Amino acid sequence: QVQLVESGGGLVEAGGSLRVSCTASGRTVTIRAMSWFRQAAGKEREFVSGIYWSSGRTYYADSVKGRFIISRDDAKNTVYLQMNGLKPEDTAVYYCAAGASWSMSIYPSHEYGYWGQGTQVTVSS
User: Is the distance from CB of 99 to CB of 113 less than 8 angstroms?
Assistant: First the structure.
């Protein structure tokens, strides 16, 4: 089992920056990829950004490309999402997810077996 704990959400004005973190514990050696998803009120959960743990290859949704940066700290089993140029439409609960399948695709939420509790990010206009 893997446990995920997010931190770093909050309230920020449009154009500002926030960094959210996700620390994994438990059987972290099984993790193949970690990603961030978000869910705005009344909308479906959507992929934001992901990283394959071994290769470090990163992926981004078109809506955040060029503004968000995902990174990892292997020693701390932590993945970060640096969010710059925030817009009101980025307001959502942000969830960290981890997947352990060798052949997993990074985009679909059903590929992930472990989820954090979520952290609220609110961007005011």
Answer: yes
